[in-house]
Predict the structure.
Amino acid sequence: MALSESKIEELNIFAKEIRVNILETLNGLGFGHYSGSLSISEVLAVLYNEVMDINKDNFESHDRDHFILSKGHAGPALYSVLYLKGFFDKEFLSSLNQNGTSLPSHPDRNLTPGVDMTTGSLGQGISVAAGLAYGQSIKGKPYYTFTIVGDGELNEGQCWEAIQFAAHNQLNRFFVFVDDNKKQLDGNTKDVCQTFDLVEKFNAFGFESLKVNGANISEIYEAIGSLKKSKSQQPKCIVLDTIKGQGVKEIESMDKNHHLRLNEDMKKQFEKIAETMRSEVEAVK
């Protein structure tokens, strides 16, 4: 079932709220993984509002969906969502990466409410997600396991072992989202280690896969719905065609933007961007 126009607008506003919180928290630090956090704002908006059975009331239960952010350096995006969904308050969010914080730069399940898996070592998140999905399958549970990996993260052989494991065990309630934002730490992904066609690659590994515009709320939602309706026992993959820094043109246009450390001019510029975006959100709420 397609989303209504009003629902699409609501989710786009939520995605913008994710972005403004990413900007504000990282601006406070003066450094961080802005770009890879911004590029997953839309998919997180869809997952946490319309798809996943995860909330602050059922989080301690095993009888729910699970979510793992395998590309753990995008933690600020997940933290923004968890704040917006009521897992913790604004003061907690503002403590990102401060001394003694319970909100480290990469997600930690022992420190942060709402985090299913400690991630940051790339490749490990998708592996644990496959294991969770396997456990739910053994128990015959109706819940889904969702994970987001980066295109650069797929340089890790461990990812493909987990992908092959999921396909072999027919984990049809396992969803992998690839944030195909074309860049990674050392440059353009195609120059560091060419991924080729990720849909074809996942299909070859035994997944049921498709590609969507990762900035389009409707496309993301409909792709998830389509794959959920599939009669196939294959695990699912949705390749998100995104831009590193998505939604903030000043960051999108930067050549090297994996991790940014702000000088005084950049800090002022980014604070102005955050102020403008905050005003736009408040104007429609």
